[in-house]
Specification:
Layout: E1 6-7, E2 13-18, E3 26-31, E4 36-41, E5 47-51, E6 65-67, E7 70-72, E8 79-81, E9 87-89, E10 98-99, E11 101-104, E12 107-111
Antiparallel strand pairs: 1-2, 2-12, 3-4, 4-5, 5-10, 6-7, 7-8, 8-9, 11-12
The structure holds FE2/S2 (inorganic) cluster.
Length: 124
């Protein structure tokens, strides 16, 4: 999936896809007005959105593996908590942005601005 997002007037959310276009457990990339995000569905059916670009190098996180609430980068194995954006496994030290998700019927909407409330850098 990488369809152009559909703007919703008077709201800060864009429609990115239908629920049934997402993998049962996994991630897919979507463009929300110039920012590519990874739309992630977990085993419990919850849907999250995070930056699609790994904070360690310029690769697509939506091509990684989903394990619980963790998205693992396919290149060097950094793991990110998709609820907070914080890295939970090296080598990445910087968090990724997290975006609010709304489900309306069969449609998935993602906020156009990130909602991170976490520290901007993980202390090690
Ligand atoms: S590029 Fe993602 S961990 Fe290195």
């Amino acid at each position: 999936m990488s369809a152009a997002a559909e703007l919703v007037p008077d709201e800060d959310f864009v429609r990115v896809c239908r629920l049934d276009e997402l993998p049962e457990v996994g991630a897919a990339a979507a463009d929300i007005g110039g920012t590519v995000v990874a739309i992630v569905r977990t085993k419990d059916g919850s849907v999250h959105a995070v930056d699609d670009t790994c904070s360690h190098a310029n690769v697509s996180l939506s091509e990684g593996e989903v394990d619980g609430c963790t998205l693992e980068c396919w290149l060097h194995g950094s793991r990110f908590d998709i609820r907070t954006g914080l890295p939970s496994g090296p080598p990445a030290l910087a968090p990724i942005n997290v975006y609010a998700v709304k489900i309306d019927g069969d449609d998935v909407y993602v906020a156009t601005t990130p909602q991170n409330t976490t520290p901007t850098h993980l202390e090690r």
